[in-house]
Amino acid sequence: MAQAQPGPWDALGAAVLTPIEGRSGPAHSTLFDFEQPLVSETTDPLDALNEFERQRVSLAGSVDPARLSRLLAAESVGALIAAEMRFAGLPWSVSAHDQILTEMLGPRPTVEGDRPSKLQFLAEKIRSLLDAPQLNPDSPNDLLRALTVAGVQTTSTRAWELKQLKHPAIEPLLEYKKMSRLLAANGWNWLDSWVRDGRFRPDYVPGGVVTGRWATSGGGALQLPHLIRGAVIPDAGWKLVVADASQLEPRILAAMSADRGMVEAGASGDLYEGIVASGAVETRAQAKLAMLGAMYGATTGESGRLMPKLARAYPRAIQMVEDAARAGERGEVVSTQLGRGSPRGADTGTYDDSLTPAQRSAERERGRSWGRFTRNFIVQGTAAEWALCWMASIRVRLDALAAGTWLTESPHLVFFLHDEVVIHSPAESAEAVAVLVADAAHEAGRLLFGGLPVTFPLTVAIVDRYDAAK
DNA sequence: GCCCAATGCGCC
DNA sequence: AAAGGGCGCATTGGGC
Hints:
The chain is α+β, with helices and mostly antiparallel strands.
């Protein structure tokens, strides 16, 4: 499957929602009749049974059919959940959103394209402080020029670079950037485009990311700023159950490498404190930094310096990500826990004497960069698999909780964010949902790692506003 | 007018 | 508070 050339199914995209006309389904075979050979009477390249049969054949020939079929099942449930979440929608209060915007930016301008009052005030202040009356603070070019003329030394206008600088204009400028960003990304225009009948309906793209993570197209659901999460408010008599997996990716690394020490460090609840307790590093902040470095491939800075300590304390876990990085540099495919393969890179390890030293050096850096990708791929991709299994298990349990009701009449998933879910639930069911979500996290661990004693603790909150969940 | 790259920043 | 991985989106500013 992964090796197969893209076919007509891959090209479907949004068109999948359009019914195919003039075709009646097979009359005598049922979808789950596995014992019957699935010989389709049609040559339609979009025939679902044909595709299903191709997948079965491919599975049977795979290295580990049990794991890969689990991945297929998880992906299938994920696709269903994505459609259901879009159907149900995330409860969204237009008035709460407007209130947030008005507080931060000033009231919505009556003339389209005008700056809201507070933003306009800041723009004038920056112009005056930089002595640049024509300055458009939204134009990086313009801004860089004005800063240089005012004697501020910088090569870019990125917020984190500006923060290092000393000039009276910097503070209002940073404030302006934050506000301008809110207006452009999630302002009134966004509200008009994406919220209908009190619901935000993101267009999820399951498996849209190369690692297996979901993507979205339009609406930017996976980048929903914390600033506006106060607009996510349940219906009257309902609650939001917000659950996120604590330190998911480091725990995934511990589990997939079966690094006993790291698994035990996570057993008490805070993996980073566990790492400190083991004596590997001195502070929680160091533990976090070192783990991030291990998973992303940090080479410099404090993160890079802490890596050897981590490698001494947790040799198996670190060896696993190092191996993934080296494999990537050689152009090899690496794989997640359930068998999703990475794309094949170019082999940059072999010596090619037709290249100039500069070319060889560029080639090496390209290889290292690909190695950082494959290093992260196995962790990010397996975390995505855990999240799919988690959601699938949540859905099964929600189904059992409220059998025989419509999706939106009983507790249902309304939002997903890589390691976090939101469930819209009648108030009286919220406690039960909070319990079931934690049970599902245990089950996800079992589905991926069998009997390994790994824990995936959650932070669960029952709230009346999304941003009330910490 | 449309198309595209660069820039910057939101999320995990 | 970036560095190191993965994304999507709005805006600017250049090309045609």
